[in-house]
Amino acid sequence: MPSWLWALPPVAALGVVFLYPLYLVVKQSFQPDEGGTSLAPYTEVFASEAFREALFTTVWLALAATAGCLVLGFVLALIIAFVPMPGGRALAKFIDVFLSFPSFLVTLALLFIYGTVGMANGMWTDVTGAADGPFQFLTTPWGVLLAEITYFTPFVVRPLLAAFSQIETAQLEVASSLGARPARIIRQVILPEALPALAAGGSLVLVMCLNEFGIVLFTGAKGVTTLPTLVYGKAILESDYPGACVVAVVNIAISVGLYGLYRVVSRRVGA
Fold first, then answer.
1. Nearest in space to 166 (alpha carbons), one of 96, 95, 89, 77
2. Which of 52, 104, 183, 184 has the fewest CB atoms within 10 Å distance of its CB?
């Protein structure tokens, strides 16, 4: 049997499950409710203020969350990998389990702690007798940003731990014996080895943040509309299916474009 025949079943499954629905979405984006085929849905969506605001909010939240995850993930991975402490192995195993958690579960945990009627505000009102607590940020863009950094940081930590496990401890010992301070060891020895893992984890987090829906929905952040929530609003609340498909196509194009850029850059730097 020719080897290419073995590729037919997965390709056929991919076409039925993914490519054909994607084709229907793209096709619907060119078919306004009045009938026919035109660019009117794109013109209408691109001209709307809601779309421009959602696009800007999606991009800045994704970039800020990715930056926060890279910084926090790098620090956590350094501590777990190189700082001797009890429970380090158990913490690494917990990160593996954390990766399987749904995003809304982490958001609910933050709501229980910092929500309007959460534990932090409850303790504040019990102590001061005030009507409301001071922690009201979860319903703002900063609450969404905190939830995304909390949830996506392990996606950076996991590849970093794998990269750090490949570093020879003899390199660190030699650098230390030559008088290098910890900051210089991190900058000149550890960081160059971690750059491919940082690029991989950061790219994954960026794409996932661009397409995140559950965190934004469960925080109940007022005035925070991203492209995925705009798709939901147009399709479910407004019954504007062509407009929803237009926003979905834009979201897909951004994600695929970022993935293509990552592949090109990774080839050039040899990652």
1. 77
2. 183
Q: Which range is most confident: 18-32, 45-59, 163-177, 193-207?
A: 45-59
Query: What DSSP character marks residue 223?
Result: T
CATH code of the domain made up of 51-223? 1.10.3720.10
The three-class DSSP label of residue 150 is helix
So what's the pLDDT on residue 269? 59
Task: Give the Cα separation of 91 and 87 in Å (integer).
Answer: 6
Q: Residue 123, Cα to own-chain centre: how many angstroms?
A: 32
Which residues lie closer than 8 Å to 265 by C-beta, 6 or more apart? 199, 271
- Compute the mean pLDDT over every residue in the chain, rounded to the nearest whole number: 83
Q: How far apart, in whole angstroms, are the C-alpha atoms of residue 212 and residue 227?
A: 9
Q: Which two tokens stand for residue 106?
A: 């982490």
* Helices then strands, each counted (H, E), the chain: 15, 0
Domain ranges (residues) in the chain? 51-223
